[in-house]
Amino acid sequence: MISELTCPIKCIFRMRLFLFLCIITHVVTGCNRKVPANSSTMSSADSIKADTSTTVSLPACISAKIDSIGQEPVWNPPAEIHEYELDGRPIYLISADCCDRFTIAVESDCNTICAPSGGFTGRGDGKCPDFFKKATHTRLVWKDDRERNK
Questions:
Q1: What residues does 10 pair with on adjacent strands?
Q2: How far apart are CA 23 and CA 3, in angstroms?
Q3: Relative to the CA of 122, which of 33, 94, 96, 99 has its CA 20 to 30 Å away?
Q4: Same-domain check for residues 72 and 125
Q5: What pLDDT digit, counting tens, does each position of 124-136 carry?
């Protein structure tokens, strides 16, 4: 009887150990946020370019967000801001700074609408599950093109 219980207990222990090691590996390797010592900070005036390489007029809060991201170490993956049109108004999609975090959709005044993607499931926060069906991608507004330290 005791030998019958030993295997399930050992199996449960091994599975928990395996899961723990997977989580630790993901946390340790997932968010490498090193920046080269010679990397420069950037401002929105220097770095806001549209796909056609022309300067774009942006709401003040989006420019401020770009400036804020430029003061941080390079995100993994590098930050991007995309413009979408939803119900006739511009919506800005700000990428996540690392793994399993939400991509945030904000209005022109930076009020958060929802997180249409990202998170542990990759499906966002559930507040706008049909965002990508209803919204139309307008352009890539900005991408952080600084180099990451490898």
A1: none
A2: 31
A3: 33
A4: yes
A5: 999 999 999 999 9
